Amino acid sequence: MADNGKLEDHKQKSRERDQLLLAYLRGELGAEETARLRQRLADDPEYAERLEELLLGGGLMQTEPEDKAADFLPEEKQRSIIRWGKWKSRLSNAAYTVGISLLIGFVLLFVNYWIGRSLYEDMFRVSKDLVNFTQPGIVAGSSGAQVGLFYGSIQMELREKVGGDRQQPGYFETTNVFTKVSSRPVWNDGVRKKNLFFLFPLQTKLQEDTSFRREPAWKTLEMLPEGTVSQLAISFDRFMSLEEMYAFLAPYNLDLTWLAVDTGQEVLHEDAKEGVLLLSAGDVWGFSEHGLDYGPGPIQVNGEADRRTRAYVEEMKYLAEQERLSRSIGQSLFNSRSGLKIDERYRYLEKNGIKTYGIVVTGPTKELLKLKQEAAITAAFVGQIDWWNWNRPSASGQQNSW
Fold it and tell me: Could you identify which of 71, 97, 98, 379 might form a hypothetical disulfide with 213, taking C-beta atoms 3.0 to 4.6 angstroms apart as the criterion?
C-alpha cells in the first residue's frame, strides 16, 4: 500500500509539472511565473528534458488532451526554446564545473601554504644548524625562499671569515616536494677543497711526534708576505673547556670563527681504532662562533661560556627532535654510514658540556705564525688566504650586476 501511495504521488507531481509546462507553451503564465519556471528549467535537468520532449511531440499524461505542444507554438519558437534550454543547461553545468575546480584549487593552495609554512621554519632552522655544526669555518648567512604548489625551496648563503672580511664560497639549497625534503651545498666552481682538519686527542693512542702535522702550516705562513691575512685550523693535545680555550687565545690578536667539539661519537669512528683520528667537514662536529642564537642582548666576546653551552645544547636538542628532517638534510653534509647520531650526541653534550679539541681562527698571517710557540698544538692546517683586510675601513660596500 505504501508503494502504491508513492506511485500515485509521483504521478500527481508529473501531471502538475506537465500542466505547468503546457501552460508555459500556450503563453498562459504571467511574467513572474514565467521567470520562476525558466529558473527551474535551468536548475532542474528533468524539467528541461520534459520540456524538450513536449516540444518534439512527446506523449502527455493520459489525463491531458491528445493534442501536442507543437500545435501551440510556431516551429521557430520551438527551436528557440530548445536552444535556450540546452544552452542554459550547458552554462549551468559549466559554472558548476568551474566552481568545483576553483574550490579544489583553493583547498590545494591552502593545504600547500599550511604544509609549506610549517615545513619552511623547520627546514630553515635545521639547514642553518647543520651547516653551522658540520662545516668548519663556515656560517649560514642570509636566505631566500620560493614556494609553489606542493613545492618549496630555501637558498642560504654560505660565508666564511678570512681576516676581517666574509667571503662567500657558495650557498646551501634545501627543497621539498610535498613532505619529501632534500638538500645540497652548491660550491663556487662546483667543488670545495677541504683544507681545515682536526686531530682528535684519542686518550688511548701512543705518544707520537706530531710535528709533521704542524710544520707544513708554519712554513706556509712564514713564506706569506706581511700584507696578508689567513685562516688556520689548530688542534689541541687535550680537551679544553671554553674558559681554557679563551684563555689560550687571549694573548693573540685573532678572531675565533669555529670550534670542534667532542660529541662522544668521535671515538667510535672507524678510523679511531688505528690510533690516529683526523677529522674534517663531513665527520667533525662543532659550532660556528657567530652561528648560535644566544637570545636577547649581545654576548660577551670570548666569554659567557655557560650561555654559549646552553645555546649549543638546546639547538642539538632541537635537531634530535627533528630527527627525520635532520637526517634528510644532513645526508649531503655528513659522511658517516652509521647516521648522524644526533640524539646520542645531544645526550652526551647535555651530560658532559662542551669540550673543544680544535678551533678555526683567522687574522694577520704573522700573528697566526706566533702560535707556533704553543706546545699544546698538535696539528695545524692553513685554509683560505687573502690580502690585508684586517683593519675595518671607514666605508665599504658592493655593487651587483643585476
Answer: 379
Q: Which residue has the cell 675601513?
A: 393
Residue showing cell 627546514: 123
**Calpha distance 17→10 (Å, rounded):** 11
For 256-287, the DSSP string reads: EEEEEE--S-GGGSTTGGGT-EEE-TTT--EE
Torsion of CA 264, 270, 272, 276, to 10 degrees: -130
Contacts of 110 (CB under 8 A, 6+ apart): none
Task: List pLDDT tens digits, range 326-351.
Answer: 999 999 998 766 678 999 999 999 99
Question: CA triplet 309, 140, 213: central angle to 5 degrees?
Answer: 70
Residue 345 counted as domain residue = yes
Q: What is the pLDDT of residues 43-55, one digit of tens each?
A: 777 777 777 777 6
Cell triple for residue 13?
507531481
pLDDT reported for residue 17: 80
Torsion of CA 245, 246, 248, 252, to 10 degrees: 140
Phi then psi for residue 278, to 5 deg, are: -110, 120
Residue 179 has pLDDT above 90, yes or no: no
Q: Do 304 and 202 have their domain in common?
A: yes
| Position 151 in a domain | yes
Residue 238 lies in a domain: yes
> How distant, in Å, are the alpha carbons of 7, 18, 42, 92, 194 from that of 84?
32, 19, 10, 12, 77
Domain of residue 255 covers: 195-387
